[in-house]
Design goal:
Shape: globular
CATH topology of the largest domain: Rossmann fold
Number of domains: 2
Strand order of the largest sheet: 3-2-1-4-5-6-7
Oligomer: single chain
Radius of gyration: 21 Å
Strand content: 5-15%
Number of helices: 15
Order of helices and strands: EHEHEHEEHHEHEHEHEHEHEHEHEHHH
Length: 372
């Protein structure tokens, strides 16, 4: 029996969801090869986008489904027409063909329903139509945390017994060679700054920690914010570079790795997250994490981060001061984080996904070619 991957994600600049799709597809392909099963990777024509460290040969040799249709139209019409009879389709980026039944769809979170102000009207309209439809049509819905599963049930995207959890991995960050030039360019020194990653989307809650950082008496440990566009984007929201806050704008994966390696700690104040990949990436790199109690973050961090209510500004300020002054506090978080991060690998995620494929009948068995 054949399993095909909807690899439309290769045809656009990679988002966080696309990164998950790349890593999970690569790990699943390796698992299938060992088991003697076949994984067909289908993509539109045109150039592909891959992050550093991704297995380029696997995706460059993927199968092109030629069509005049592009983007969502290719996904909805050309893709299902290109599937082999009785093939199963695996969609890892929140949507898939609305009228194809032999498929699994990974819906990463329910934030288009719970945090609508973080998305454009067009985006909201499409997801609010497509995802409940897929919840009825697809044989299985996948998501990345128990929190997201409960939210998808709460917003009636799919019933609980139809949703399975396949957590993300984070070990891809270790394959990336850090680009230390970002430190010199922004006059940052190892262990001499606090890091935050995110955008001005309301649910990312960056203003809380920005205000906390600006209120510190000792500003020798600045808050460095990576992501969310260039400084003009923040300036329009009244946020500018200052003695206590540095805005880096978008950074490459290699630059992000260097920031994780060098930061005194990561601050992650989101109001809600379907998973929250940055804390686990940071933990993988040995960076202490202070995170919010929002969404799936406590579930994912599971005692390995110092947790605060998202809008507890005094608490965030206190945590910044503690990270700055208390090496034992930072080391405890560092050690606990490395231990927790070991639970989140792409190999483990692929094994869980394979078990779900077996459960729905997409794979008849997990054959093994390995020998004792």
């Amino acid at each position: 029996m054949e399993v095909s991957v909807n690899a439309r994600f290769l045809s656009r600049p990679l988002t966080g969801v696309d990164r998950v799709a790349v890593e999970l597809t690569a790990a699943l392909s390796e698992l299938f090869e060992r088991d003697g099963n076949s994984l067909r990777i289908l993509r539109p024509s045109g150039p592909i986008s891959l992050a550093p460290g991704a297995p380029s040969a696997l995706f460059e040799n993927s199968e092109i489904l030629h069509s005049k249709l592009k983007g969502a139209a290719w996904e909805q019409f050309a893709l299902p027409m290109g599937l082999a009879p009785n093939a199963w389709l695996l969609n890892l980026c929140n949507v898939g063909p609305l009228f194809h039944r032999r498929q699994m769809v990974m819906i990463h979170d329910a934030q288009v329903f719970s945090q609508p102000d973080s998305y454009s009207a067009r985006f909201r309209s499409w997801y609010k139509t497509a995802q409940p439809t897929l919840g009825r049509v697809a044989k299985r819905i996948l998501t990345v945390s128990e929190h997201s599963r409960k939210e998808l049930v709460r917003f009636r995207v799919a019933p609980a017994d139809k949703i399975a959890v396949v957590p993300n991995g984070a070990d891809h960050i270790l394959r990336i060679t850090p680009d230390q030039s970002i430190l010199q360019r922004h006059k940052l020194v190892p262990d001499g700054f606090l890091l935050a990653i995110g955008s001005l989307a309301p649910h990312k809650n960056l203003p809380t920690i920005i205000t906390a950082a600006q209120s510190l008496g000792d500003r020798s440990l600045p808050l460095v914010i990576a992501g969310g566009g260039d400084s003009t984007v923040f300036a329009k929201a009244g946020i500018q570079n200052s003695a206590g806050v540095k805005l880096l704008g978008r950074v490459s994966d290699a630059e992000l790795r260097a920031l994780y390696d060098s930061a005194r700690g990561l601050l992650f104040p989101s109001l809600t997250e379907g998973f929250g990949l940055p804390p686990i990436e940071a933990m993988t790199c040995g960076c202490p994490v202070v995170a919010s109690t929002g969404g799936a973050v406590p579930e994912v961090c599971s005692g390995a981060a110092y947790l605060l209510a998202p809008q507890d500004q005094a608490g965030w300020r206190g945590a910044m001061e503690e990270l700055s002054a208390n090496e034992a506090f930072a080391q405890r978080l560092r050690d606990a984080g490395r231990k927790r991060a070991a639970d989140y690998t792409w190999a483990k995620a692929a094994q869980k996904l394979r078990s779900e494929l077996v459960a729905v009948g997409a794979l008849t068995q997990a054959k093994s070619r390995r020998h004792a």
